[in-house]
Amino acid sequence: MSDKIDVMSEIDQKFVPPLMSPQATLRTSKSDRTLAAILNAALEFIWVHPFRDLTVNKLMASTGLSRSAFYQYFRDLHDLMESLLDQLKGEVYVVTDPWFEGVGDPVARLNESLAGLVDVCFRLGPILRAASDASTTDATFERVWIQFIEQFDDAITARIEADQAQGLIPELDARFMAITLNRLDVYTLLRAFGQEPRSKPETVHETLARVWISTLYGNNWLESGSSDLVRI
């Protein structure tokens, strides 16, 4: 599996909370900078504290902004979590696009996408943990969390069915397999990157790649992380 690991970019193991967009620059508006400050403060908080400990007062005190500034952008903390989850979802869709939409070798595209997924969740994993926790305390956000997961169920199902139509994946229940693999990812990434200390991303990538590749395309391609299959 060493070839798979090479797909991943080098990741600094030292924790540095990433800035959320929109990032403050000289060209951004005051409103954009305020929103970025709130999102960044929330992300930094959930790196080290559970979501249940977050309050508007604590959040805004860390930004140096007034409490009223929070309500210019968000209804409540669950609304804030929805924005963070949208940020995560957007990044995940970008890095997994090679497998969902790419042509050529589907095994190599899958391996590349899983590496990207691990990279994103290594940086933003606490959003997953906080979102999962928040879904148990608010019915509206629970629906947001379920929709977030089911959107990937739908995308994975469509990709499996398309590859089956080309004879790349054997006959199996595409929907049930998509749900199974997606729930495996969610649980694994939550456990691996939801809080400090985080698991080694190389180990998580190798584990997920073994499961996905062997399940969908066969054991022949496990060691190389690529295949002679061709998706058109």
Describe this structure in words.
- The two termini are 26 Å apart.
- The longest helix has 29 residues.
- Helix 7 crosses helix 8.
- Helix content is 66%, strand content 0%.
- It has 9 helices and no strands.
Please tell me how large the radius of gyration is: 19 Å
What's the N-to-C terminus distance?
A: 26 Å
Q: Which assembly state applies to the chains in this document?
A: single chain
Q: What is the helical fraction, as a range of percent? A: 55-70%
The topology string of helices and strands comes to: HHHHHHHHH
**Strand count:** 0
Number of helices: 9
How are the elements arranged and paired?
Elements: H1 2-7, H2 30-48, H3 56-63, H4 67-70, H5 77-101, H6 106-134, H7 139-165, H8 174-193, H9 201-216
Helix pairs in contact: 2-3, 5-6, 5-7, 6-7, 6-8, 6-9, 7-8, 8-9
Features:
9 helices; elongated; 0% strand; disordered N terminus; 232 residues
Briefly say what this structure is:
The chain is an all-alpha fold. Helix content is about 65%, strand content about 0%.
